[in-house]
Amino acid sequence: MKGIYIHIPFCISKCPYCDFTSFEDGDQKGYIKTIRDEIRLCDAEHMDSVDTIFFGGGTPTSLMPILIESVLDTLRESFDIKETAEITIEANPGTVNAKKLLAYKRAGINRISFGLQSADDKELLALGRVHNFKEFEESFRMARKAGFDNINIDIMFGLPNQKVDGFSKTVRRVIEKNPEHISCYGLKIEKGTEFYKKYYGTSFLPGDIIERDMYHMAREAFEKSGYNHYETSNFAKKGMECKHNLKYWHAEEYLGFGVSAHSYFIKGGVHIRQGNTSDMSKYIEDISNDVMPIDEKNILSKKDIQDEYIMLNLRLSTGINFLDFKSKFGFDFKDKFKSEIKKLLKGGLIKQDEEGIYPLPKGFDLQNSMIILFL
Hints:
The chain is 41% helix and 23% strand. With 375 residues, it is α/β, with parallel strands linked by helices. It folds into 2 domains: 2-247, TIM Barrel (Alpha-Beta Barrel), CATH 3.20.20.70; 313-372, Arc Repressor Mutant, subunit A (Orthogonal Bundle), CATH 1.10.10. The mean pLDDT is 92.
């Protein structure tokens, strides 16, 4: 089973912390036509069953629903899309209404991910968000009324001038909404963004200790409210984990369509990671000439595949399964990394049983240090 990612780069306004490929204007209809042409150009070898589709961005809900529906129609013409497929659309509060949401639902979208980020209107303003908390509440209410019973809410911590008490307000308000899934990310100050120019290296940002306090507080609150901490930054009610994102973390195959979209697939036994150009003009020109718009392509070695497997699986609470590892790589993980496992057990970063090793809360905190031991 494969996953499919569709990149919609358009936004009403670009957030000052965002380094994704996104634009405040552009020819939306022309871009969607190009994505549909790219899907049709896709190598016939990729024809396979698909059980997850994810519309990300940008802000996919800034488009008219008929454009999103047309992409889904083309995907159904080109792939075997399972009737039970998880189909997600990212949404910014304030960019949806009752009519739009019903149209997405009729098109087959069954999961919606709201980018709330904060329940504090002052923080939202500082983040450059185009909505306030009241607009989020209305968007969430309309989504429930439209029949969405699988909703994610994105929130961020470590914001400029943010305190633990302030972030706890956002955590409480999100829990009150009772979504099926919550993503909780620390703000990253990326080069080339407005936030990098304004905040990098300044005292406006909470330090590492305060950020850890925020993360711990949120994790404890979510777990007490019945959410499983299944991945470093993700929490879900039982059975409501994001199936599409699990493909990334389990190193399963997925295809990306659109400007700057990435893919991972196996062709003739060769593991390939590739990415489309982030240049919109080149993307459109390549597709118009019946050329796939590949900007980078990497053939993974066996060591690359092994390292990725370890790195990605240690982001998950399910950790590394010894039997699965041996079936993939032909040797025993616990024998090969005996001293590393012993060190992590002694440090309280993991637990171990007969089936595998699993990160503990301290392991999630010191994840990079834990992972690098095995690479």
